[in-house]
Amino acid sequence: MTDPAQPTTSEVPQAPKAKAKLKVSVLRCRDAACGALMPFEETDQGYLLGRVLELADVDGEVRYLPCPKCEGRLLLEEYEHAGKIRVRIRDFEPGNSPGTA
Hints:
Distance between the termini: 78 Å
Number of helices: 1
Radius of gyration: 23 Å
Largest sheet: 7 strands, antiparallel
Number of strands: 7
Strand order of the largest sheet: 1-2-3-7-6-5-4
């Protein structure tokens, strides 16, 4: 016999599921010898936050973020993540500044 003072499982409100929190860090140059901080944020899932493509430099069809320290280029690409178009670093091209590879 059930106690009328106790709510049944169908009456107990369910707490909403917590969203998975993203870990966000400052984007760094991909050159291990450089590691300069870039003015963008990168998530632990690998995509960049903000209006990166609008601020990126363009060389032909290639969009990239130039490193202010080593003059390397972080090459960008668009891809679909969780139903949204995101931007991530595709590759790194070393720069020509003295003291780099």
